[in-house]
Amino acid sequence: MLVDDHPLVRERLGDVINREKDMQVCGEAEERSAAIELINQSPPDLAIIDITLKNSDGLELIKDIHSRWPKLPMLVVSMHDETLYAERVLRAGARGYITKQEATRNILLAIRRILNGHIYLNERVATQILTRIASPGAVVSTNLRPTDMLADRELQVFELTGHGLNPRQIAERLHIGIKTVETYRARIREKLNLKGGTELLQLAITWTHQQ
After folding, report:
1. Measured between alpha carbons, how far is 157 from 166 in angstroms, rounded to an integer?
2. What is the SS3 assignment for 98?
């Protein structure tokens, strides 16, 4: 099953998968509710999910699917920086992460590896994660980006702020209250040592344009 808010991406991935003799796309969705409905109707062998979805968030969808169907493997195929999101999607319940810039053969490799019960990550990212787990005290702070200190929801609020959404729009997008958004914004400012909303907006815009 393909879950992506861009029809052209779904078409491209669908063509790649359907050309394989032992694979077939059984459903497509562009946002959370449609994806959940598809899985309810006919659970796929694998769900391929993007981080950014129409009117919803891929990371929260992954958590939702993992809680309802813990045995359903998920692969994230996204434009987002894998060093930022790979570990987060694994914690949420996905089994792998690959960027959309990767060659077709690598995407198929990721699909097959996950269907065979394994985890798929870029070798560089896998090494970073394993190093952090094995020797957490050895991680040099200068190698950490400010966003590494943010929790998943805080990162989502930070990213949407960078895309120009105001607190009300963020609340509607994430289906949470405005006061909750303001609480997250306050936590972000505290963690990133920002003096106010203007500094938060400036940093969020700069960071978003770098992704």
Report:
1. 10
2. strand
Query: Which is nearest to 18 in space by CA: 83, 84, 104, 100?
Result: 104
Per the DSSP assignment, residues forming a β-bridge with 149 are none
pLDDT (tens digit, 9 = 90+) per residue, 46-82? 999 998 887 778 888 999 999 999 999 999 998 877 7
Q: Give residue-wise pLDDT tens across range 90-137.
A: 999 999 999 888 888 999 999 999 999 999 998 877 777 777 666 655
Domain 145-210 falls in which CATH fold?
Arc Repressor Mutant, subunit A (1.10.10)
Domain map (residue ranges) of the chain:
2-133, 145-210
Closest listed residue to residue 15, CA positions, set 114, 116, 107, 121:
107
Whether 98 and 120 have beta carbons less than 8 Å apart is answered as: yes
2-133 has CATH 3.30.930.10 classification:
no
